[in-house]
Amino acid sequence: MKRFWSSLLLCGLFVAGAQAQFFWREEFSHLNDWNTSYDPSKQTIVDLGVVDPGLSGETGVYITGGGRTYNETHTDRTPSTGNIGFPANGETRYLYFWGVYNESHDTRIGGGFSTGDVFANELADGLGFHHLQSPDDALLIRVNGSTVASPTLERGDYDHRIVMTGKPAGVMEVTWEHKAYRAPVWTTAHTTTGSTAAFADRLVKLGVDNNAPGAYIDEIEFTDQDRLFKVGSQGSPVVADTSPFAITALVQSFASVNMNLSNYLGANMNTLLAFKADEYLAIKAANAQVPWQMHVDATAANPAWASGSLQTKLQQYHNDYAGNNAWYTKDEPQFIAMADSAPVASWLQSTFPGSKVITNVLPAGASATKLYGDSSNPGYTYDQYLSDVISIIGPDVLMVDQYPFLNGGTTSHDVMHNTMSKVREAAQANNMPYHIFVQAFKRDDLNRRLPSESDLRMQVFAAMTYGFTGISYFTYDPFGDYGGGDLTMVSPLGGPTPELYDNVQALNAEIGILGKALGLMSNTGVGWLEGGVGNKPTGINDWTFGTGGDTKIQSISVLDTEGGGISEDEDGLIGFFKDDTAEDYFLLANMFHSSGTSSDDAELRFQIQFDSSVDQLLRLSRTTGHSQIVNLTGNLLDVTLPGGTGDLFKYATGNPDVFPTSTLAE
Q: Residues 335-357: what's their mean pLDDT?
């Protein structure tokens, strides 16, 4: 669904008397990135010009208003092959407004047929509606400028339609209907009958009154088809993501994602993660046919849980909105509250056996008091904490958050690697997958800087090298209840923040490819590749011969690409993996990164010397998805990697592998 940042009027021709045996639709992706800098002081109406009379071609239009100008061509309209007209006797026409939402009490969306001026901001004469008129949250049914009905609606996403049925002697019956988005039943709000001459026959209009920071609509359609759902979208089953590797970002407000999740999915996420039990986010994920996960921010002591009302709500979401694949229990549990989280996890597992239960834990840098919940157990360790989460709460997936990029350009490498090492060890000991939240925000009062491109890549590829099979970015949108982040992937109304969004988008395209293979493997070991300065982080061992059970690698060297000496932080990481048939793989990653530094500016060269049995490798290209043959000279792999970035290799045994596509020569 496309968001509107200023007042809007859409016009298309409606010509009387013609037969309508086709679809006419207008989608709004052509306005998706328009005017994301909402300015409440600019209230001028924005006008879209009229398309050509036959609607058989496309014309450019000029949009101006609110101090902004924009030129565009109608590219998302389905061209018609004739004119659109009133229904003949016994025929019915439908004007659909799919996916309408208005989050502000002082804003209302209006749509319908009108004989009013193309550049007027009101639905003058004709048939129309206004959605959620303040202050009563009522739908206003309009006939020739007058309100004839005003049913009360709860705030939310809706579909609307005006149904016109031809009667004898030029009479037409008009019915206004609405329903909650994706609901399977239309509700009639009002019906009237009159001569077609008394009704509008000129324009299809959409307008937004006043300021519209949170008003949006997905699509307008005029057709002779009676349907419950928009073509190819609502009501369709969610296509399961076959990737065993989850890529998500924590969404805290439904206002930051549009109905088809275009910006969210445009960042190459493959699953929606809702921070709260928010029905609108589940609706939007199901509408976009995307798997979704939801945080259940409650323990058994919560009144909503104790009364059973929260369980009822979760069951409704799961049943009504296809695609749920995971639930998150209470975030960062402390020991003294774990017993109250356990019944929630148990209920979720038994009620939704097809969905995983995930518990996100505190990082290794937390104090004993923070981990335990009070100061009564000063000797409480992180290892014991992880063991207690697994044994008491009993999740299916262990997750951890860590945000290592500090103001001043420093990075908490010790906490980062110690956390990943210990979570990996605890999860593997219990045969559990393990996921991670990574930092994708800047916030000065939390002493967190803006992650650079090389920062983001380093954190994500390090996690993949440790065997994490789920990456979630914290956070997609501002912090909501926490007071608002200084900078996140998108603005509060969903406009991308280039400093973060663009880097995440490119990174996810690569890890989406590698993840399809890594999610089908088990991590058998990980080792640090010291560049020579002696700054190995706490919690990770140096690579040595035999790490991860690999006996083919004899030595590994880290070299500066410019021929100079190795400086601080110019290090690497290597992880070893096996698939279900015991084929061997390794992920080699460049750990060099810095504040404000691109990945290209942090390149490192790696040389791996193998024994005489290895003269060929396979590499899964993270950009094309193809498996590439890498021939070795002198059993030596010589590869240069961008900062924070890794490549996935397999020993070329001739046996089947888990790489997703065919093999190409390098």
A: 96
How do strand 158-167 and strand 171-180 relate by DSSP bridges?
antiparallel
Q: Report how far residue 659's alpha carbon sits from residue 618's, in angstroms, rounded to the nearest whole number.
A: 9
**pLDDT per position as a tens digit, 536-574:** 999 999 999 999 999 999 999 999 877 666 777 899 999
If you compute the radius of gyration of the chain from its CA atoms, what whole number of angstroms results? Answer: 29
Strand ranges, E, within 485-549? 522-529
Q: Give the Cα separation of 474 and 471 in Å (integer).
A: 10
Which tokens sit at 69? Answer: 């100008």
- Rounded CA separation 33/263 (Å): 9
Per residue in 96-141, pLDDT tens?
Answer: 887 777 655 555 667 766 554 433 444 445 777 877 765 567 888 8
Dist CA 594 CA 569 (whole Å):
9
> Is 539 in contact with 421 (CB distance < 8 Å)?
yes
Backbone region of residue 126 per phi and psi (left: phi > 0; alpha: psi in -120 to 50; beta: other values): left
pLDDT in tens, 438-475: 999 999 888 999 999 999 999 999 999 999 999 999 99
**In the numeric block, which tokens belong to residue 393?**
């709460």
Going from the C-alpha of 191 to that of each of 143, 385, 612, the distances in angstroms are 11, 63, 84
Higher pLDDT, 227 or 369: 369
Residue type, 371: L
The whole-angstrom distance between residue 549's C-alpha and the CA centroid of its chain comes to 37
And the tokens for 537? 């982080």
Cβ neighbors of 146 (< 8 A, separation 6 or more) are none
In this structure, the strands spanning 2-4 and 522-529 are unpaired
pLDDT digits over 69-99, tens only? 222 333 333 333 334 456 788 888 888 887 7
**The two three-digit tokens of residue 428, written as one number:** 């593997």
CATH number of the structural domain 523-665: 2.60.40
For the chain, what are the domain ranges?
2-223, 246-519, 523-665
Nearest-angstrom CA–CA distance, 68 and 48:
13
CB neighbours of 312 closer than 8 A, spacing ≥ 6? none
For the domain made up of 2-223, give the CATH fold.
Answer: Jelly Rolls (2.60.120)
Amino acid (one-letter) located at 440: A
Q: b vs e for 210-246, b when ≥16 Cβ sit within 10 Å of the residue's Cβ?
A: ebbbbbbbbbbbbbeeebebbbebbebebeebebbbb
Question: What pLDDT is attached to residue 14?
Answer: 35
Please, which residues have CB within 8 angstroms of residue 68's CB and are 6 or more apart in sequence? 6, 35, 42
Model-wide pTM > 0.85: no
* Of 43-52, 320-329, 362-371, 624-633, minimum mean pLDDT range: 43-52
How far apart CA 65 and CA 68 sit, in angstroms, is: 6
Give residue for tokens 């890794």: 646
Q: What is the tally of helices (H) and strands (E) in the chain?
A: 10, 33
How confident is residue 67, by pLDDT bands cut at 50, 70 and 90?
very low
The CA distance from 270 to 292, in Å, is: 9
Contact 70, 82 (CB under 8 A): no
Beta strands 126-133 and 108-114 are antiparallel
Q: Output the pLDDT for position 59.
A: 33
Q: Return the number of other C-beta atoms located less than 10 Å from residue 621's C-beta.
A: 18
| Mean pLDDT value across the chain | 80
Using alpha carbons, select from 509, 42, 76 the residue that is nearest to residue 268: 509
**CA dihedral sign, ordered 84, 90, 94, 95:** positive
Q: Is 540 helix (H, G, I), strand (E, B) or coil?
A: coil
Domain 246-519 of CATH type 3.20.20.80:
yes
**Helix, strand, coil shares, percent, the chain, to 5:** 20, 35, 45
